[in-house]
Design a protein that fits this description.
The protein has 436 residues and is of the alpha/beta class. The protein has two domains: 322 residues, Rossmann fold; 95 residues, ANL, C-terminal domain (GMP Synthetase, Chain A, domain 3), CATH 3.30.300. It is 32% helix and 24% strand. It has twelve helices and 21 strands. It has a nine-stranded mixed β-sheet, sandwiched between helices. A four-stranded antiparallel β-sheet has the order 10-11-12-15. The model has no long low-confidence stretch (mean pLDDT 93). Bound molecules: 5'-O-[hydroxy(phenylacetyl)phosphoryl]adenosine. The site of 5'-O-[hydroxy(phenylacetyl)phosphoryl]adenosine (DLL) has 21 residues, from helix 6, strand 7, strand 8 and strand 12.
Length: 436
């Protein structure tokens, strides 16, 4: 088993809860004293920083939301003067203003540590060459992975996203051993390698750290086969820090949350009630060490559950199941709740299709909502008889209709017809608002 900071990652549970309690007290006091937004919010909720005595008191605190970031755009959530802020990132989101986040020098140090843990848990060491194909820029993926890999002492290739041909050239020429990018881009790299006749089993590449968008166990299998590597899930969000909030170890059985820095909770998104471990709900984070942007009970809108049974690796940190969906990407089609992740999990089970799909929701005037799923067939299927393709189509329709309980159409499309992404993939087109 691989560790970056075994002492911390394997401390005792009592020690961890104690540390979290201390850090929570400091964070709440610091946020209250330095961010007018938090002072107003806590005052309105009738909570005084003095009321927070241990980690269990966290449920007394009010939630923070994405809207709060919008209302305080750009720097209103910062707890330190700009002279102490050494980095600013932003995440675009789907609507409205960007969410702006800032870091002190110390924050960058914590982030680098968290990412060093993440990459080490998958076996990265100073001898590795890390091809970092996450986008550099306002997005946290590029610089987050970069600093973590540098912290370990690995050699970072800051290639950023895109230019697939060059990625593959450099992967071969430099002998890259570790790959960092979105899972959808990893699939594309694997496919392009096969097309170019590159035998990936001969390359020294051994591990990949994929995140920033939802993916599935089947997609993991697909990537591992195509690239001949261990594919590990990494999770994070800009508001909390960036990548490195939680990470898989080689057990590949859930993501350990770096709980000494980020305290996770699951709540019922309707009522805000805290849920026990094992129950699905919305993931909420409280930062325990951040300076520039302390975060109190931030609602991520990501749906998952936490579990605390012992992991084979020995880490004390609780694990979260890979993200199951989002509270806000749920589609309501003819009154039925549909999550894109449900559709993906079925598609990945069907032979003869590729992990590229697009969910199109439409509404013709005066008619009911239509759900159509476009799915790419595997190149080997294209030349096959129509009969075989029809059978695949029927199989997908049957599986999806029985899972979702609504009728839908499948459109099988030729390989390469669905737009590829070098960063986060776009899986849903909802045309309903445009032509009502
Ligand atoms: O995506 C940070 C990141 C970069 C994570 C690189 C991992 C690797 P944002 O752009 O702020 O930050 O988007 C955060 O992306 O709330 C999730 O909905 C989604 N997300 C991130 N990682 C995963 C993952 C970065 N492993 C939002 N699985 C989060 C599923 C993920 N969804």
């Amino acid at each position: 088993m691989y560790f970056w900071d075994k002492k911390t990652e394997c401390m005792s549970l009592d020690e961890l809860r104690e540390l979290q309690g201390e850090r929570l007290k400091n964070t709440v006091r610091f946020a209250y004293d330095n961010v007018p937004f938090y002072r107003r919010k806590l005052d309105a909720a009738g909570v005084n920083p003095e009321d927070i005595k241990s980690i269990d008191d966290i449920t007394k605190l009010p939630f923070t939301t994405k809207e709060d970031f919008r209302d305080n755009y750009p720097f209103g959530m910062f707890a330190v003067p700009l002279e102490q802020v050494v980095r600013i990132h932003a995440s675009s989101g789907t609507t409205g203003k960007q969410t702006v986040v800032g870091y002190t020098e110390n924050d960058i140090g914590v982030w680098s540590e968290a990412m060093a843990r993440t990459l080490s848990a998958g076996g990265t060491t100073k001898g590795d060459i890390v091809q970092n194909a996450y986008g550099y820029g306002l997005f946290t993926g590029g610089l987050g992975a970069h600093y973590g890999a540098e912290k370990i002492g690995a050699s970072v290739v800051p290639i950023s996203g895109g230019n697939t041909k060059r990625q593959l050239q450099i992967m071969q020429d430099f002998g890259c051993t570790v790959l960092c990018c979105t899972p959808s881009y990893a699939v594309l790299l694997g496919e392009s390698a096969a097309e170019q006749g590159i035998d990936t089993s001969k390359l020294p590449l051994k591990a990949g750290f994929f995140g920033a968008e939802p993916w599935s166990e089947n997609m993991r299998r697909e990537i591992e086969e195509k690239l001949h590597i261990d594919a590990l899930d990494i999770y994070g969000l800009s508001e909390v820090m960036g990548p490195g909030v939680s990470y898989e170890c080689m057990e590949k059985a859930g993501l350990h949350v770096s709980e000494d820095h980020f305290y996770p909770e699951i709540i019922d998104p309707e009522t805000g009630e805290r849920q026990p471990d094992g129950y699905k709900g919305e993931l909420v984070f409280t930062s325990l060490t951040k300076e520039a942007l302390p975060l109190i009970r931030y609602r991520t809108r990501d749906v998952t559950y936490l579990f605390s049974d012992n992991c084979g690796c020995g880490r004390v940190f609780r694990r979260m199941h890979r993200v199951l969906g989002r509270t806000d990407d749920m589609l309501i089609i003819r009154g039925v709740n549909v999550f894109p992740s449900q559709i993906e999990s079925i598609l990945m089970e069907i032979d003869g299709t590729e992990p590229h799909y697009l969910i199109v929701v439409d509404r013709e005037k005066g008619r009911m909502d239509q759900l159509e799923v476009w799915v790419e067939v595997s190149p080997k299927m294209v030349s096959d008889e129509v009969r075989k393709l029809e059978a695949i189509e029927r199989a997908i329709v049957a599986e999806l209709e029985s899972l979702l309980g609504i009728s839908l159409k499948i459109r099988l499309v030729e390989p390469k017809t669905i737009a590829r992404s070098e960063g986060k993939a776009k899986r849903v087109i909802d045309r309903r608002d445009l032509n009502q």
